[in-house]
Amino acid sequence: AQSVTQLDSQVPVFEEAPVELRCNYSSSVSVYLFWYVQYPNQGLQLLLKYLSGSTLVKGINGFEAEFNKSQTSFHLRKPSVHISDTAEYFCAVSEPGGTSYGKLTFGQGTILTVHP
Amino acid sequence: GAVVSQHPSWVICKSGTSVKIECRSLDFQATTMFWYRQFPKQSLMLMATSNEGSKATYEQGVEKDKFLINHASLTLSTLTVTSAHPEDSSFYICSAPPDYGYTFGSGTRLTVV
């Protein structure tokens, strides 16, 4: 079974400051990792994903994440946030094959609030 | 990238009635789609996988008779909440299979009064 833990339920930050949203996962098999953003009353937008290859993954809107297998982490970072980045962010994990292929297990979410 | 269209965006229904939510793939064809539910201020939980040409696969604890999932064609998957009750009020959202980028629909906010 897989699980995802997002270590911070809320992260307040000032505009133009850097931010890191933390995500740890647990799995007995190799995994695919994802970060999604959800704006109020909207669906989920994929920010980035790690399937294989380089452990540093660059996504949309200036976000990036680094897969650290030894620490089972996949933290999301942005060097300078904007007011428009205020949203809820979800980390998710999936298996690369088998009967659970395509099924996502989500973390609890982190609400990022960017203050002017 | 793959586009998933979900309708309606929001719906209010009376307790005891049924509500159908549609999830369409606009630029791809898929034999499976995934349905998730998100309670207020909570994370998303997988409910079931719809399968074209066969029965849906439900996750443990999801009532099959209450949440009817059908994959009518390669571009349409539907979720019907039958005999809805206030505790079914939630955000329901579908997603495309991995071959189409793990893309999500825009979601449906269901409120049962």
Shape of chain A: globular
The Cα radius of gyration of chain B reads 13 Å
What percent strand of chain A? over 45%
Based on secondary structure, the structural category of chain A is: mainly beta
Q: Total number of helical segments of chain B?
A: 0
What value does the Rg of chain A take, in angstroms?
14 Å
Distance between the termini of chain A: 41 Å
Cα separation of the termini of chain B:
37 Å
If helices are DSSP runs of H or I spanning 4 or more residues, what is the number of helices of chain A?
0
Q: What report would you give on this structure?
A:
Chain A contains no helices and twelve strands. Helices cover 0% and strands 52% of the residues of chain A. In chain A, the strands form three sheets. In chain A, strands 2, 5, 6, 10, 11 and 12 form a six-stranded mixed beta sheet that branches. With 113 residues, chain B is mainly β. Chains A and B meet through strand 6 and strand 11 of A and strand 4 and strand 5 of B.
Write the layout of secondary structure elements.
The complex is a heterodimer of chains A (116) and B (113).
Chain A: E1 3-6, E2 10-14, E3 19-21, E4 23-26, E5 32-38, E6 44-50, E7 56-58, E8 64-68, E9 73-78, E10 87-94, E11 105-106, E12 110-115
Parallel strand pairs in A: 2-12
Antiparallel strand pairs in A: 1-4, 3-9, 5-6, 5-10, 7-8, 8-9, 10-11, 10-12
Chain B: E1 4-7, E2 10-13, E3 19-25, E4 32-38, E5 44-51, E6 54-58, E7 67-73, E8 76-81, E9 90-95, E10 108-112
Parallel strand pairs in B: 2-10
Antiparallel strand pairs in B: 1-3, 3-8, 4-5, 4-9, 5-6, 7-8, 9-10
List keywords for this structure.
heterodimer, A: 116 residues, four-stranded antiparallel sheet, 0% helix, B: 113 residues, mainly beta, six-stranded mixed sheet
